[in-house]
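Q: I'm writing a short explainer about MFS12 protein for a general audience and would like to include a description of its predicted shape. Could you first generate the structure from this sequence?
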Amino acid sequence: GTTCVLVSFPFIFNPCLGCKENTPQWAAFIYYLPFIVIFQFGWAATQISHLSLIPELVTSDHEKVELTAFRYAFTVMANITVYGLAWLLLNLQVDRPERTEHLGIQDVPVFRNLSLIVVGLGAVFSLIFHLGTKEKPFPLGSLPQPEESTPLLQKEPTRSPRSLLVWKDWLLEPAFYQVAVLYMATRLIVNLSQTYIAMYLTNSLLLPKKYIATIPLVMYISGFLSSFLMKPVNKWIGRNLTYFVGILVILAFASWVTLTREMGAEIYGVAVLLGAGSATILVTSLSMTADLIGTNTHSSAFVYGAMSFTDKMANGLAVMAIQNLHPCPTELCCPACISFYHWVMVFVTGGIAVAATASLGCIMVWPIRVRFHDVALQGLSGAGSQHDETESTEGRSQSSTVN
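A: Of course. Here's the predicted structure. Afterward I'll give you a sentence or two in plain language.
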């Protein structure tokens, strides 16, 4: 996955090789398509395998929240680095006569250099991760070997290897779909708001292009600070209420955007709300996914992969729908797109937050746990115990007859 990202990412943010001003759009589309496919495959492989380590490393619910929060915190640090570099590169254009306050073709070298720097930094830290992280895999269907710190007496009887869930078993669990819908709604809010925030700032609010670096930077700093509150807040009020608090913050952001058509310095306050709310719901939804997996860590990659699949499909369809509704598809922006991106930001945050609240209500009524698989196993174990009791009874009767 890391190799695919390193190979494909620089080409996505560089001009099409061999393309000219009169090159048709379909030719450029065909050129970029394989690089985007390779990048998305690599990104999914990297993200899913990394997330799958969380249930492997810890078993406590609060520790899962803590690890997820730390993971998000370092993700935010990476994003802050990217936006800080973007702000620096954009401000280095001061001495250039062609520099303008809005994005244009003159900014292509900025994003090219930014992509190369990002790939270089990512390669270094990926190398550190792969060299420093040692896996201890155990065969499918077997339990991990006890270590020196493993207690001799277990609080609960250890499940037999047949009790482990395989990928087909997850498809029969209602909780699997509950978490998938909640995670999909969460990712729609986070990803679409990050996608359209730049257009909202430059086209709807008509702010200078430096804001496309500073506003996301404020969002990520807010999310970074909020991530450290996740463990104590989850311990205090629980998963569901923590997620609900995050949704309330997102709804506050959507309400502010709805009621305000022009913003100045208050845009930074709006960014703080969006960053804190996004961090809260994302960390909590990932923790819920880890709760769903529980001890079935051998199939955690399938669960995270399925969640990622629903999220990417939903995001792709949402972006296609939004772009098809664009009032001026033949040009970059027109007077009608000023209000268009304003309402896009309201919908992708407030509208989807309402759907996420409904999904959360479903989880509060039917809590996250494996149902049908455990029932089937209890039935099997019950039948087995009855069979054993029958055999022992028959054995005792035969023994008494012989005596």
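A: For your explainer, you could say: The chain has two domains: 1-95+106-129, 167-377.
Q: Perfect, that's easy to follow.
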